[in-house]
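Below is how a single chain appears once it has passed through the pipeline. First comes the sequence as given, then the structure the pipeline wrote out for it. We keep one example in the README because the format questions we get most often are answered faster by looking than by reading.
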Amino acid sequence: MSNSPCDAKAIRLAVLALMVLALIWSYNWILMKSVLRYVGALDFTALRCAFGALVLMVMLPLTGRSLKPPPWRPVLWIGLLQTAGMGGLGQLALVAGGAGKTAVLVYTMPFWVILLAALFLNEKPRLPQYAAMLIAAFGLLLVIQPWEWHGTLLSSLLAVGSGLAWAGGTIVAKRAFRHQSVDLLSLLAWQMVVGAIVLSTLALATHKTEIVWSPTMLLVLGYNAVLSTALAWALWLFILRTLPTGVAGLSSLIIPVMSVLWAWWLLGERPDLAEGSGIVLILLALALLGGLGSLRTALRRFFASHRPPASGHR
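Resulting structure:
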């Protein structure tokens, strides 16, 4: 069966959505670094998650969904790991670490997913995945530079911890989807509520400096609540529904690459030779892990769907 004009239009829109999504999420690392002049790391993370949760909860009835919470166990664990853990640790990493470097370390998430899936889901890694993980491990060593016990070592470990927490939330979500039917947007909204409650509690307990409610602070907060949370996740759902999952996963490679370029251009972050080499190795490993295979699959499916029908085809 040939691809209909509506399907072709949806594919073009999904590719455009993927580009917009990459722009939103990659540039947000620059904003999250810059806003620390006006607000503490945990304070800002709690605020953006609270406003993001509010926007997502409003989106549920607007999209015809019920406000009834999904099963509480995956909501709780994903909220703790993916929102509170990933968001909180990632923002803390930005206090001393560069935006581009932090983004790359957080986006090592796919490697931790492979390891955790082997432990908890009995999914054995394939040979290309082993090769990618070895390259990434060497890249991590060069970026973190554990032989340097000063500077940004703690920041690097927090960023890696953020990626690990994100991976843990991904594993919980995969297990939940295996055993029960869960609406993705509803799960996203309610786990954001859980994460916002946890982060707000931590922010209140550790609050030391007053928040400067400057126009920049408010704009960045609005960007995170409306664009980075509500719009970006809506785009992501549309991408997942329209494109193959592997193709959608290409954004995991595009976002840290763009973040490094943004940080280089706007913040003047120029990594040294070891750090730069490590970033390149991690990005190469991400490409080997999913990007190249996904691209090959995407091209195969694209050309198959656009092949002219054979004569006599009904």
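The chain is about 80% helix and 0% strand.

See the next section for the split statistics.
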